[in-house]
């Protein structure tokens, strides 16, 4: 009888340690999950900011202004335009 009690106590202690270990692991994973979600939100904000910046840099007016001002480009005259028709 004493031996059976000792086995039951050992199993109960082992079970309790398993529960504590599982809870600790779950808390660690939950904290890591929260950190990764915060990082994902920060990356989404940065992605939106980068898209806005790209649209600003690629604005038609800005490109045209840059081409005229720095590159000395302009619209071609009618004599400089050559229309190429596809062959059928």
Q: Can you walk me through this structure?
A:
By secondary structure, this protein is mainly α. It has two helices and no strands. It has helices spanning 2-57, 60-69.
Strands, helices and their partners?
Blueprint (H helix, E strand, L loop, with lengths): L1 H56 L2 H10 L19
Briefly characterize the structure.
By secondary structure, this protein is mainly α. It has two helices and no strands.
Mean pLDDT value: 94
Number of helices: 2
Query: What is the terminal-to-terminal distance?
Result: 102 Å
Oligomer: single chain
Into which percentage range does the β-strand content fall? under 5%
Largest sheet: none
- Which structural class is indicated by helix and strand composition? mainly alpha
Global morphology: rod-shaped
Q: Radius of gyration, rounded? A: 35 Å
Series of H and E elements: HH
Q: Roughly what percent helix?
A: over 70%
Spans of at least 5 consecutive residues whose pLDDT stays below 50 are none
**Strand element count:** 0
List keywords for this structure.
88 residues, mainly alpha, 2 helices, rod-shaped
